[in-house]
Amino acid sequence: MSLTDAEALAAQEAELVAQMAAGDVGAPVAELYRRYGRRLYRFGMQVLGNQGLAEEMVQESFVRLWRTAGRFDAARGSVGAYLFVIARSAAADIRKRPSSRPLLSVEEAHLSPLPDNVDQILDGLIVREALDTLSPPQAEVLALAQEEGLTQSQIAERLGVPLGTVKTRMFHGMKALRAALDQRGFHATA
Amino acid sequence: MPPHDAHDSAAPHPDVAGWVLQALDHDDAMSFAAHLHQCAECRAAVVELRPAAQAMTYAAPALEAPADLRTRTLLAVQQAAAAQPRPAATPAKRTTWWRWPWSAPLLSAASALAGAAAAAAIIAAAVLLPGHGGGLPAQALTFHLQPPPGAGQTASGTAVARPDASGSWDITLTVHHLKNFNDAKWYQCWYLSKDNSKVASAGTFLVPDSGSGTFSMTSAVDPHNFTTMEVTLQPPSHNGALQGTVVLSGQGQNT
Predict the structure, then answer these.
(1) Which of A110, B108, B239, B245 is the most buried (most CB within 10 A)?
(2) Chain B residues touching residue A185 (CB < 8 angstroms)
């Protein structure tokens, strides 16, 4: 993605927030949910560990975005980054809320404190989104190798395809993943 | 597939991906290891791809949000807007009222996240509920909750929803004898319209082993737009189901 494209997207999202600030809680909210809803939900699941609480966090994040839309300053950062600042705060509030752990200790309720590795969680979300951009055949062979530890010949047997096909899919899948990570500004170091 | 020492020197050998993922079969791995000593192109490719392979190890789980979460989220914003006029826009201050705790790559990644632009979706008219607002003072609602007929349970509960200063609704829920439901401790509280066509979450709560307790929840949803409150078991799996088994239900009354 060129810098111009990134800037255009940032400006477009800032305009959506400006529309919310002007009182439109329809289409701008729907579009921002389309762009960020899934990622916020995944974030919520990771930091809260519960489907219902994660859903609440997503809803609360967008309500807070609406409430503070008039104060959003695009010069200070992107809408996405702002939304995740809100989400982290919402997640922390949900964790502190008595109804999230009534009459039970934190340990008993299986709610650990808000993890201090939030940055790593967010990195993991970016990696997942990059993986989501791969073609299903490419993603499949990478997952079988990474998650199940299968060798290429085992993958070929599992999928019923020639070994050469697995090698080709794996190679192009890794190239595509690297490009998708670069596109998202993610620069992992080995 | 060409042998490792005979691939097109203009491009890395495809086995470089299997190498960085440690997915090559033994013979291929031995052969490629020897090849790497002689091929600068493939060594460069390993350096290029290894970070991506490492990144895969901490990829977030491939979870999908429930299909109805979008509708409920949009509804929550609509309800918040109806309950409380949006604060007037103010010029951005230069004070640090919100912080940027993340790294520069993350910030640019967040900007890049949006992907291809698409036409903005319009909220389906079916989910747009009339706000209670209109200048009328918000009134507390009480729901007396009982098990569904024939449930064979003795559980009971009372929920009181009161507006707070921020425009949200504070819900105080007291339940008794909520237990022995497949050992589930997580419950969800819902508002339903008269014909059950409109549903909004009022909160999620934990129940101790005693099955009794008082819980506080906060919701942006105006309960006056609904007639009934239901308490359900949280669905046991991530199946996108809106509700689990109903354990308590009751209609709202102004208090």
Answers:
(1) B108
(2) 105-109, 111-112
Which of A65, A85, A171, A183 is the best mutation test for B, with the most CBs of B within 10 A? A171
Tens digits of residue pLDDT in A9-35:
888 999 999 999 888 888 999 999 999
Q: What structural domains does chain A harbor?
A: 1-114 (1.10.1740.10), 117-190 (1.10.10.10)
Q: Which residues contact A100 (CB under 8 A, 6 or more apart)?
A: A53, A94, A109, A111, B204, B205, B206
Give the gap in angstroms from C-alpha B195 to the nearest C-alpha of chain A.
Answer: 24
Q: How far is CA A153 from the centre of its chain?
A: 32
Distance between CA atoms of A36 and B112, rounded to whole angstroms? 12
> What is the ipTM, given to two decimal places?
0.78
Q: Are B60 and A155 a contacting pair at CB < 8 A?
A: no
Cβ of A76 within 8 Å of Cβ of B92? The answer is yes
Q: Which residue of A has its CA nearest to B13?
A: A171
d(CA B142, CA A174): 57
The verdict on a CB contact (< 8 Å) between A51 and B23 is no
Q: What's the predicted TM-score (pTM) here?
A: 0.56
- Between residues A118 and B72, the one the model is more confident about: B72
Q: Which amino acid is present at A40? A: L
Helices assigned H by DSSP within chain B: 15-20, 26-36, 40-56, 69-83, 104-112
Q: What is the pLDDT of residue B22?
A: 94
From the candidates B25, B113, B174, B189, which should be mutated to test the interface with A, based on the most A CB atoms within 10 A? B113
Q: State pLDDT tens for residues A96-131.
A: 765 544 433 334 444 444 555 677 788 888 899 899
Mean predicted confidence (pLDDT) in A148-157: 94
**Tell me, what's the pLDDT at B243?**
57
Q: Which of B73, B81, B103 sits opposite A59 (nearest CB)?
A: B73
Task: Please name each of the domains of chain B with its CATH number.
Answer: 4-56 (1.10.10), 141-254 (2.60.40)
